[in-house]
Amino acid sequence: MGCFNALLAAAAGYNTVIYDVSDDALAKAPDTLMEMAPLLSEEGFFPGVVLQDLVSSIGFSNDLAVAIANADLISESVPERLQLKRDIHQRLDEISKPGALLTTNTSSLPVSEIEDVVGRGDRFAALHSHLGAVVFDVVAGPRTAQATVDTLVNYVHSLGGWPLVLKKENPGYVINAMLGALLTVSQMLVIEGVATKEDIDRAWMRNQAAPIGPFGLMDMFGLNVIFDSWQHPKPKNAHLQEKILDFITPYIESGELGTKTGRGFYSYPEPGYAQPDFLAGDSDLSFIYRVMSNVLVANAIVIAANEVAEPLEIDRAWMISFKLSRGPFGTLDKLGLDDFLGSYRELASLGIVPQDPLPALEDYLGPLINNNRLGTKTGNGIYCYPGPAYEA
Q1: For residue range 129-162, what is the model confidence (pLDDT) as tens digits?
Q2: Cα separation, 23 vs 167, whole angstroms
Q3: What is the CATH code of the structural domain delimited by 2-165?
Q4: Are 107 and 128 spatial neighbours (Cβ–Cβ below 8 Å)?
Q5: How far is it, in rounded angstroms, from Cα 236 to Cα 238?
Q6: How many CB atoms sit inside 10 A of residue 21's CB?
Q7: Which residues fall within 8 angstroms of residue 229, CB to CB, at 6 or more apart?
Q8: Domain 172-392 fold
Q9: pLDDT in tens, 192-238
Q10: Would you kindly state where each structural domain of the chain is located, as residue ranges?
Q11: pTM, whole model, 2 decimals?
């Protein structure tokens, strides 16, 4: 993630320096950048940029004070360990120049659990990037000044990115909160013998017109990353920890970590889901898709109900990140608000999806359903049809 952020910053014309405590990591960093840059370029990043020149423009240092001496913006991407992040930000606060902005790229830890160690709380925030996507989450801490948020939004725009400013902290922000739930239920469907990983990806790709499914995504993220994330699961998922770790551990032990090792759930560089005939066939995958879509939509509704972000922002972030034509609320309208709620109640009663979102779903959807705002079938749901706002 640090290399990804450095490439974006350098491509936008910023003087960029990468710091790492490991000399070995720094020695490998130029090669990592050169491997990453062409893949990102193919995805539309760095148009018109000579990649070798881009990588050559980035500096490297194993001396933190030297690396940040002239920095106006510092982005931290150290491992997801709270005390480590607190220690590094306390040090950054001590040695960086007074006007520098400090940001954390944490994907799971609340900014409020880190920011109290810095004196410059007004210039501290979360600036969270998504590898391979132009979406950036911007999250203020308890003391963050509006000017800091505005500066970070302008910075994201200067990178060619899309800033999603959250109204409040939320574990997993927006995208990861929804994606984590989708990946979890996908794994559980395989573990419980309901479906194969291929059928899960096939069901998702068919119905969402997506280029990749949940298991392909996990290969892309790295199975070691998925494994690490389950070492300390959220309390609501603690009962699933043993099953999922048992499911992933054989891949970890055999070194099959996904695309970066050439093998994970699929084999690379020609994974099964990318083959022309992968989506062929007439097998009924409707139940599999129903479970996955219900979980995704439910988590999106909870985020909106908790006033973290508006439905349109949630949809846009999801659509931009995964190159889809609609997001979870667009999917909700297509499913039908009343049909979705009935479906989720049924699946929850069977223990297939979590029970805990139900009160929020009923409170959020009940008034809309009572007003006959049922989605595309009535021309009015979360959005108005034809021409819903997310298509603009």
Answers
A1: 998 889 999 999 999 999 999 999 999 999 999 9
A2: 39
A3: 3.40.50.720
A4: yes
A5: 6
A6: 10
A7: 80, 108, 180
A8: N-(1-d-carboxylethyl)-l-norvaline Dehydrogenase; domain 2 (1.10.1040)
A9: 999 999 999 999 999 999 999 999 999 988 899 899 889 888 888 99
A10: 2-165, 172-392
A11: 0.91
